């Protein structure tokens, strides 16, 4: 995996290194670009990245996007797939490309902005 920020190869490591204060993540795989402090977790039990490498700015934007969006489906108001479908329509992006793990900072900010319209139940 190449870093989007500096072009260096990201290295595979584990949660013990990335999140030493989180024993629950020790066994999880992560890709890390040390020069950029960019990282991405992997799907459970694999080395397949969950999204794109994220530096501190993007990690913060993704956290804000998840904090705004995830309650839509965690509350039971929508099924997760339906919530992402509505998000794809609100962002005007293909459903298959609609995953917060793949978004850039700007798109994460757009997520936060459109969630109220989705929460209101508009199709």
Question: Explain this structure to me?
Answer:
- With 123 residues, the chain is an alpha+beta fold.
- Helix content is 41%, strand content 11%.
- It has 2 domains: 53 residues, no CATH class; 64 residues.
- It is globular.
- The longest helix has 19 residues.
- It has 4 helices and 3 strands; from the N terminus they run βαββααα.
- Strands 1-2-3 form a 3-stranded antiparallel β-sheet.
- It starts with 10 loop residues before the first strand and ends with a helix.
- Helix 2 runs parallel beside helix 4.
Q: Can I get a quick summary?
A:
By secondary structure, this protein is an alpha+beta fold.
Radius of gyration: 15 Å
Main beta sheet strand tally, sense and closure? 3 strands, antiparallel
Class by alpha and beta content: alpha+beta
Number of helices: 4
The stretches of 5 or more residues where confidence is low (pLDDT under 50) are none
Order of helices and strands: EHEEHHH
Percentage of residues in strands: 5-15%
Whole-number average pLDDT? 94
Into which percent range does the helicity of residues fall? Answer: 40-55%
Compute the separation of the termini in Å: 37 Å
Number of domains: 2
Largest sheet strand order: 1-2-3
What is the β-strand count? Answer: 3
* Shape verdict: globular
């Amino acid at each position: 995996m190449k870093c989007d920020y500096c072009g260096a190869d990201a290295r595979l490591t584990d949660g013990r290194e990335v999140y030493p204060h989180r024993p629950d993540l020790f066994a999880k795989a992560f890709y890390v670009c040390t020069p950029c402090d960019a990282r991405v977790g992997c799907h459970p039990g694999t080395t397949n990245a969950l999204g794109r490498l994220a530096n501190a700015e993007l990690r913060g934007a993704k956290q804000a996007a998840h904090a705004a969006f995830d309650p839509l489906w965690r509350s039971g108001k929508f099924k997760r797939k339906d919530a992402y479908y509505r998000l794809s329509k609100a962002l005007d992006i293909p459903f298959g490309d609609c995953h917060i793990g793949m978004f850039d900072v700007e798109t994460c900010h757009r997520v936060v902005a459109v969630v109220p319209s989705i929460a209101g139940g508009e199709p």
